Amino acid sequence: MSELKSYNYKLISTCIIFVFISFIASFVLNEDSLGGAFKDSKVLEKYFFDFANNFKLTISEFGMNNEVRNSPVFYIIISQLVKIGFEIKYLKYLNIIFVFSIIFFFLKSLEINYKNIKFDTKIFLLCTIALSPTIRSLTINPYPLLWAITFFSISIYYFLKFQKIDIKEYNLKNAFFCIINLSIASYITPNFSVFFLFFLIKFFNE
Length: 206
Prior knowledge:
11 helices; single chain; 206 residues
């Protein structure tokens, strides 16, 4: 039994070290395992500066040439950072906060839905997220989807709390935070707005 625990400990440690090193390497090598993340980020990078320099003109022409598949919210937020001297090349480091948020709320959601989930299982799932080509590529090559996934993960966390807690007062708060975070995710990337139907049906049934 002790040998098995020792084996699990070594395996978990190896996975964590491997993922950590690979994540650092992805920053150094500017990883684009998705294949098109770098190209998309470079094409859309101009909007950060356009919104910073001429907001009215940029918002009126936004999306007219069909090169943008997301709302302007992400670009407007970054443009405000650009105005105060923030450099786009540092945006990938800001994105790390969102990666950690995705991991945190994913693990918290697992704990709600699976009370007896093992520690090593959580670590392996965490490593899976950190190795995801989507997460890694969108962290290095800034794109709205990463931020939207973060707020969507938070909305799922509060939805699971809504389902598990029987106290009506807490249920109302959880439903509220679920919808707020889903709204933010949908404003960043409209694809997530379809989940409003699913959540609202569940809420109204209660």
